[in-house]
Amino acid sequence: MAGANKAETIRRIFAAYLANDRAFVENAFSDDFRFTSPYDDALDKPAYFERCWKHSDWIERHELERIFVEGDEAFVTYRCVAKGGRTFRNTEFFAFEDDKVKRIDVYFGAAYDNGAFVKQPG
Questions:
Q1: CA 51, 52, 54, 57 torsion-angle sign
Q2: Using CA atoms, how far apart are residues 91 and 105, in angstroms rounded to an integer?
Q3: What pTM value is reported for the model?
């Protein structure tokens, strides 16, 4: 799979998430897919859909800022806008195997409200 195709797969996964097109995302992920975030450690594909998929209705849009593809790996940084107006930026690392996404690692970024940084508790 060429780098441009991997970038397009990433764009389509983000679009499918907002469109609630679970079938597309399931097909884009390998059978041994793993998902890690600050809240999740190497969730398998069924656990990802159980834990993460059902919570997408609060997102208004993703603004993909940059996608870097090198070989079978890619980084995407995006701004997420919630339906209530809250915004934050994340970066995700994608690992591909053949034409499928084998792994996604999410790194949470800062939160913003009306363009101003919002300090998080803790």
A1: positive
A2: 8
A3: 0.87
Query: Quick check: 80 and 65 in contact, CB under 8 A?
Result: no
Q: Which is nearest to 17 in space by CA: 92, 69, 96?
A: 92
Choice among 15-19, 38-42, 109-113 with the minimum mean pLDDT = 109-113
Residue with tokens 């009306």: 114
Distances (CA, A) of 74 to 9, 65, 121: 11, 13, 31
Amino acid symbol at 51 = R
DSSP code for 85: S
Phi then psi for residue 47, to 5 deg, are -65, -35
Local structure of 114: helix, strand or coil: coil
Q: For residue range 92-117, list pLDDT tens digits in order.
A: 999 999 889 999 999 998 777 777 88
